[in-house]
Specification:
The complex is a heterodimer. Chain A is rod-shaped. Chain A starts with a helix and ends with a helix. Helices cover 84% and strands 0% of the residues of chain A. Chain B is mainly alpha-helical. In chain B, 72% of the residues lie in helices and 0% in strands. Chain B is built from 7 helices and no strands. The radius of gyration of chain B is 19 Å and the shape is globular. The chains are: A mainly alpha, B mainly alpha. Chains A and B meet through α1 of A and α2, α3 and α7 of B.
Chain lengths: 32, 225
């Protein structure tokens, strides 16, 4: 089995940052 | 006919529906990480599929809402439809961004290149630019009626790309994997992986709707600020 674990982790971190960042953006907008 | 959205006293974002959506996403990620086997040929990179495909489904849902609400707005001139289309477009851009960023993390180890100019990649990038243009257009047109009409037309045109993106693997010579679920024949995955994929799609679709709902509440609140 090829070692592709770093790509897997990088993809999940990237998606997590994007989703969580948007939730924070919505929260910030709701408080203005 | 012009309807005015009912204002909320304050936009409530993190309600029961949002909590259920986040819990569903967390459960799906736990199942992906701990309770789904690795694919023998691709290793851990195959698990990017669950994130990538569910984000694509979320983008399809969000941009489908943009198209339907745009038609409703052009037909009824209902302001609520315009605000819902705007909210769905923003969330659709988020999910399309996730599709475009997670794909290359799979492509690099499996294809040997981050970006190959594949038909489906290019069409998805084109869709991203159209949705971004939709949101930019809404920001630069001051007149509310003109903004609603122009952006509704662009929203419909952008969503018309989705069938081409889905069918692009049949229409063009492409390296992109064929559909696993949305195809005439049975799903081509072992049952453990198929259950995980269906769970991820359901969870992220719910999350997509929760985000659109929260964003719509902010838009309605801003109208009456």
């Amino acid at each position: 089995m090829p070692d592709t674990f770093s790509y897997f982790i990088a993809a999940y971190i990237t998606a997590g940052v994007l989703y969580a960042g948007y939730v924070v953006l919505l929260w910030w907008r709701s408080r203005r | 006919m012009t309807s005015t959205p009912q204002p909320n006293s304050r936009p409530v974002l993190f309600d029961w529906f949002f909590a259920i959506a986040v819990a569903a996403v967390a459960a799906a990620v736990v199942r992906i990480l701990n309770f789904t086997p690795y694919e023998a040929n691709q290793g851990a990179a195959q698990k990017i599929y669950y994130l990538h495909i569910s984000a694509a489904m979320g983008a399809y849902i969000a941009l489908g809402i943009v198209a339907v609400m745009s038609v409703v707005y052009l037909w009824l001139r209902d302001k609520r439809a315009d605000l819902l289309a705007e909210s769905a477009a923003e969330v659709g851009l988020l999910f399309t961004t996730v599709v475009l960023t997670t794909g290359p993390f799979w492509a690099k180890p499996i294809w040997g290149a981050w970006w190959t100019g594949d038909a489906r990649q290019n069409l998805t990038l084109f869709l991203w630019f159209l949705v971004a243009a939709y949101l930019v257009l809404r920001g630069v047109v001051d007149d509310e009626t003109m903004r609603g009409r122009y952006s509704a037309v662009l929203g419909i045109l952008a969503a018309l790309n989705i069938p081409f993106i889905h069918m692009s693997v049949y229409m063009f010579r492409t390296m992109h994997p064929m559909p696993i679920l949305l195809k005439p024949s049975a799903p081509s995955l072992p049952s453990e992986m198929l259950i995980t994929l269906l769970m991820a799609i359901a969870a992220f679709s719910l999350f997509c709707v929760a985000l659109i709902r929260a964003r719509y509440r902010i838009a309605v609140s801003a109208q009456h600020a």
